[in-house]
Structures are given as structure tokens and as C-alpha cells.
Amino acid sequence: xxxxxxxxxxxxxxxxxxxxxxxxxxxxxxxxxxxxxxxxxxxxxxxxxxxxxxxxxxxxxxxxxxxxxxxxxxxxxxxxxxxxxxxxxxxxxxxxxxxxxxxxxxxxxxxxxxxxxxxxxxxxxxxxxxxxxxxxxxxxxxxxxxxxxxxxxxxxxxxxxxxxxxxxxxxxxxxxxxxxxxxxxxxxxxxxxxxxxxxxxxxxxxxxxxxxxxxxxxxxxxxxxxxxxxxxxxxxxxxxxxxxxxxxxxxxxxxxxxxxxxxxxxxxxxxxxxxxxxxxxxxxxxxxxxxxxxxxxxxxxxxxxxxxxxxxxxxxxxxxxxxxxx
Length: 326
What we know:
This protein is an all-alpha fold and about 325 residues long. It has one domain (about 5-295): Rhopdopsin 7-helix transmembrane proteins (Up-down Bundle). The chain is about 75% helix and about 5% strand. It has ten helices and three strands. It has helices spanning about 25-50, 60-85, 95-125, 130-135, 140-165, 180-185, 195-225, 230-260, 270-290, 295-320; strands spanning about 10-15, 90-95, 175. Helix 3 (about 95-125) runs antiparallel to helix 8. The radius of gyration is 23 Å and the shape is globular.
């Protein structure tokens, strides 16, 4: 195809979640609440992890990067969606759509790799506790996180460039609430074999190894836990990875349902619902799961709250001390 005809649209129309006008304000309020809770929860995780020396460990270094990824992911999607709900303006420029796709695919890739790294972290902590500090030293941790971010956005860039070679000549209406790869492929009026091949090899080279590393790590972890004789020892060992198991279960189940379903059974409505799960709900739940089910995070939060209360108490005392006599 001639290069000039590669792309015949300058903007897309994002159809959103519902055409019902009566639902726009309720949906706006729901997603605004989800967005604010997500920002607050993940910022608290990052702040507490940086502020409390007891949390300066590989596990919480990875967790803070996961929180940063969740903030980037939801901030890439929800503000535009809120604008659609509030104003009814559904258009997005071609560059804006490609940018949204790039950030989303990058964050998804980074999250997969970070969750894999966290699974490996739990494997080393439970199966090789005496060598934990040696294996996961600061240099290795920084290298693992940097590699996750580089690979995530490198893969995303390759996918985005491949999408730019598609032609959207029949319609510019994206039947989704953001510029995702699946609705863009279905919208294209040209052959998508090349892009689908890129996605296939991306999954083979990145997502599949990450999934199996996670699976193998937990196979060894479960085996090690079962060998612990005391029930209390088993409970403590399992509690160190229960939060991570919950997070990866939610994340992988929603991702697999959306991207590994046969085209014959793919439903745009179901795809939108599942996409809401991993683009907005999961980033909101991650800090809640880690804070509610992790004693170290809860203790750090109590410590931070205690310091704040002590500071306020001292402030009140100082005000009383300098208060003039009546």
C-alpha cells in the first residue's frame, strides 16, 4: 500500500463505556473516586516505603515501583475517560491515541515483569533466606527494575510503531474506553497479520517467560512451605507471599481473559468490563491488598500516623505555652 494511504484519519472517536446519558454523571463520580483512591493509596505506599528505613528492602523497592507503574497506567486512561463522561467530547487526536496506547502497553509490560521479579524475590526469601541479602543486593535490585522499565517501553514502542502502519479508512470509532490494541486491530481496514505477528512474538519472548518464572517460583515456594514442620512456621511463610499471590491472580486472570480469547468468542462489552478490571480496579486494589495483608506496611503506617499525632500534640503544647495571658 502507498505510504500516503497508510493512515486516513487524524483523530479517533472513543465510544466509551455507555451511551446512556443518565449514566454519565454516576460513572464520572465512580471513576473519579477510583482514580483518587488509586492515587492516594499508591502514593502512600511509595512515601511510606521511602520514609521508613525498615522498608528499605528489595521487596518494598519492587512494590514502590509497582505503585509508580499503577499511577502511570491509570493516569494515562482515566482523566480522558472522566473528560468524556463530563463533557461528552469523545474525540482524541491520532497522536494522542498512539501515545495512550504506548503508555498503556508499556505499563502493562512493566507490571508483568515487576510481578515476576517480586515472585523471584519471594522465592529467594523463602527458599534461600541466608543468601537473600547476597543474591538480591542493591545493584541487582536496581538492575532488575531498570530492565523491567526498559523492556516494557521498548516492546511498547515496537508495537506502537507497528500500529502506525495500519490504515483506518472505514471508520475512526474506537469501540472501547481507551485506545487499546484489540479494538484498533478490529478497526483497521488493512491486513493486520504483521502486527499480530509482532504481538505473538512479544508474548512468546516476554509475557510467556515471565509467567513461567512466576509459576516455577511459586512451585518451589509451596514445596518449601510444605516442608516446614510447625503450623505457625507455615503460616508465617505463606503470609509473606499471600498479598503477591492475590495481586498476580487478579492481574493475570483479567489479562488472559481479554487477550487470549478466540476472536469468535470475543465480545466488545465483555472486553470493556475486563479492561476496567485491570486498568482501574487492579491499580486501586494493589495498595489496599498490600497494606491490609502486610504487617510491615501496617506497622509503618501506624508509625507514620503516630509521628503525625505527636507532632500535632507538640504543636498544641507550644501554642498553649506562648498564648498570651488574658
